[in-house]
Each structure stands twice: as structure tokens, then as C-alpha cells.
Amino acid sequence: MAIATMTTPLPISFFPFLLLIPAICFTICHANSNLLCIQSEREALLKFKNHLIDPSNRLSSWVEGGDCCEWTGVVCHNSTGHVNQLHLAAPLSETDDFATNAEWEASYNSLLGGKINPSLLELKHLSSLDLSNNNFSSIHIPKFFGLLESLTYLNLSGARFLGAIPHNLGNLSKLQYLDLGGNDLEPKSLQWVSGLSSSQYLDLSSANLSKATDWVQEIFQIVGIIGKVWSF
């Protein structure tokens, strides 16, 4: 037995709106897919690259006039185009026990080194910076890192930095993750640690704390405040 059904026809005036929906979607989606990075941020990244030693040409995609949102290691915000992540960790680390000799050789030859240009300060929206497992054996951790106020993630582990830890890292009140492990660091004080009010993870393993006479009281003070994960 056939069952009769009744449908209410759509008002004629509603159809033009329906026709507009695909056009609106196409315009928005097309705009996002062709979003280019900010020119001043592209220039800042090129200055940063020019001071690096890149023996394997890992950053070959970083070219003048290119879209930096498509460059190796660069992540841009999908609606604003601002660079918000810079991940340039070496492909392998010393914990990769199952790597072949060829992989180890390729990894060693791909380590970035040289100097770190303060042009990174132009990346006002940078929230994540990873330079881990590279070879910055001739330099200290740059003091200007403490001015990257938007950082929530900073990984410099195993990058062979040496010397003191900049006290102004304590200015990074948004920082949740800080890994300085595996470097040749000799901090004179850890008073800066108390400024990491958002910290959830801190790694200072391999650091020589013998000259930091206040390290015990500073660590216990901050652990008592936030009770998060720490490694020394």
C-alpha cells in the first residue's frame, strides 16, 4: 500500500540564499588555501637562515619571494598567516638506538649550527620553537630568547649550547615546556626559574649546577607552587 506524504514547498525567496552558500564556502576555503605568510616575517626568517650553517641544505625551501608558510619547519596560523611554530630539530637524536650507520651519518651532516639572529624577535606570534639536537657548540643560549613573549614551548635539548643560562628566560610567563637538557650549561643562578609561572615541564639535565648556590631553594619553591614535572 502506498503511503502518501506531504511536503511543504520552500518559499521561492529562499532559493537565492541556497545558491549563495556554495559561493561563500568556495571564497572562504580558496582564501585560506592561498594564504601567504607576512612579508616582514619572511624577511626575518631569511635573516635567521643567513646566519646559520646548513651543511646539508635542509633549508633549501627558504628562498627569497617564497611563501614561508610552505617552508621546511615553519608553521603558520591557518587564518592570519602569522608564523607561530618553528621546528628545526635534527632528524635523529642520540636516543635513536636503532638508527643505521647511514642514518647516523646523514643526521650528523644535517645538523644546523652557526649563530642565531635576533631577527626572530619579528615573529611576534611565535609560540613554539624547537632547535633541539643541532650543533650550536660555539655559542651561548641567546639572551633575546627571553623576549619571545608568546612562547609556550621551547626545546633546545641536545643542541650543544654552552655557558650560562640567560636569566631573562624567567620573563616567559606563558612558557609551559622548557627543555635545556643535554647541553654544556653552567648557570650561576636559578632565580629566573621562579618566573616560569605557567611551567609544566622543565629539563635541566646535564647542566652543571655547582655554581648555582640557590638552585635547591629555587626549585623547591617553584615545585611547591605548581607541582609539575622537572628533570635535573
What report would you give on this structure?
This protein is of the alpha/beta class. 22% of the residues lie in helices and 13% in strands. It has four helices and eleven strands; from the N terminus they run H-H-E-E-E-H-E-E-E-E-E-E-E-H-E. The strands form three sheets. Strands 2-3-5-6-8-10-11 form a seven-stranded mixed beta sheet, with no helix packed on it.
Protein traits:
232 residues, alpha/beta, seven-stranded mixed sheet, two-stranded antiparallel sheet, 4 helices, 22% helix, 13% strand, globular
Task: Classify the secondary structure makeup into a structural class.
Answer: alpha/beta
Q: Report the end-to-end length measured between terminal Cα atoms.
A: 79 Å
Strand content: 5-15%
* Number of helices, counting only DSSP H or I runs of 4 residues or more: 4
Main sheet?
Answer: 7 strands, mixed
Low-confidence stretches: 1-8, 14-33, 224-228
| Topology, number of strands | 11
How much helix, percentage-wise, in residues?
A: 10-25%
Write down the Rg. 24 Å
What is the residue-mean pLDDT, rounded to a whole number? 82
Strand order of the largest sheet: 2-3-5-6-8-10-11
Order of helices and strands: HHEEEHEEEEEEEHE
List the helices and strands and how they pair.
Blueprint: H1 15-33, H2 39-50, E1 52-53, E2 74-76, E3 83-87, H3 101-109, E4 113-114, E5 128-130, E6 153-155, E7 162-163, E8 177-179, E9 184-185, E10 201-203, H4 215-226, E11 229-231
Parallel strand pairs: 3-5, 5-6, 6-8, 7-9, 8-10, 10-11
Antiparallel strand pairs: 1-4, 2-3
How would you summarize this macromolecular structure in one to three sentences?
The protein has helices spanning 15-33, 39-50, 101-109, 215-226; strands at 52-53, 74-76, 83-87, 113-114, 128-130, 153-155, 162-163, 177-179, 184-185, 201-203, 229-231.
